[in-house]
Design brief:
This protein has 79 residues and is low in regular secondary structure. Helix content is 11%, strand content 0%.
Length: 79
């Protein structure tokens, strides 16, 4: 999936199985990052309560990513 610069987007796993999304991109200092309030994102627990330009504020509700193994390996898509 390609999101052009400035495109509002949110990704939500819709099933019971694990979901992995690999994202890459380039941000420049020319454009400000904006995390807009989105009712659709909030319904899925993936939004911000109020618009912010701070990644730290936007990701506060979520645990910091830590490299580790899943509790169970069976059922992963590459099994």
């Amino acid at each position: 999936m390609h999101c052009p610069p400035g495109t509002e987007h949110v990704f939500v796993c819709a099933g019971e199985a694990p979901c992995v999304i690999f994202m890459t991109g380039g941000r420049t200092k020319e454009k400000e990052i904006v995390y807009p309030r989105s009712e659709a994102a909030l319904r899925h627990g993936a939004g911000v309560a109020s618009e912010t330009s701070s990644p730290a504020e936007a990701y506060t509700p979520f645990p910091h990513w830590q490299p580790n193994h899943p509790e169970r390996w069976d059922g992963l898509p590459w099994d």
